[in-house]
Amino acid sequence: MSVSVGTTDRMLGVVTAVARHRVAGPAVILAGAAAAGALVWFADPMTPGGIIPPCPTNALLHIDCPGCGVSRAVYCLLHGDVAGALRFNAVAVVGLVLMAVAFVTYTVGLWRGRRVRSWQHWRYTPTAVMVVIGVWTVIRNIPIAPFDSLKV
Fold it and tell me: Membrane-spanning residues where (predicted)?
């Protein structure tokens, strides 16, 4: 069986497009994460009155939402201060680690050509994530010790 030159060129184009897709997807995700990190790095959320606005939930209702302190936690992580990041929002730090694991497994699966199963494919992951976020919201707003130390 012989393959014509036109067919070979089309097949090569498809292979090149698939290879480009296997690099472009993760590259776009990494570029977006780098841009968000650069914004947080230069915006310095530790300084009051900066370009990153305060949490609207905290400003209006005076409670800490599950995301309060995330920009400061990311800022601490970018500067190598893991303890400071955990102090601002421990659940967000764990979430960032889990998202990094999910990104790596996604990329490896994309490069291998088949999905690599990870934590995000488990059956009860959405329920567990929602329960953790709900419990975290309640616990960090309890106004007695030791829970009052979780307010940011």
Answer: 23-43, 88-110, 122-139
Q: Distance between terminal CA atoms of the chain?
A: 70
CB 105 within 8 A of CB 99: no
- 78/104 Cα distance (integer angstroms): 19
Whether residue 146 has pLDDT greater than 70: yes
Alpha-carbon distance 127 to 131, whole Å? 6
Q: How far apart are CA 70 and CA 140, in angstroms?
A: 14
Number of domains present in the structure of the chain: 1
3-state helix, strand, coil in the chain (%, to 5): 70, 0, 30
Residues 129-143 pLDDT 10s: 999 999 999 998 888
- How far, in Å, CA of 37 to CA of 51, rounded? 14
* CA distances in angstroms from 101 to 6, 13, 59, 61, 107, listed in the order given: 42, 32, 33, 34, 10
The whole model's pTM is what? 0.79
> Residue 88: which domain range?
5-150
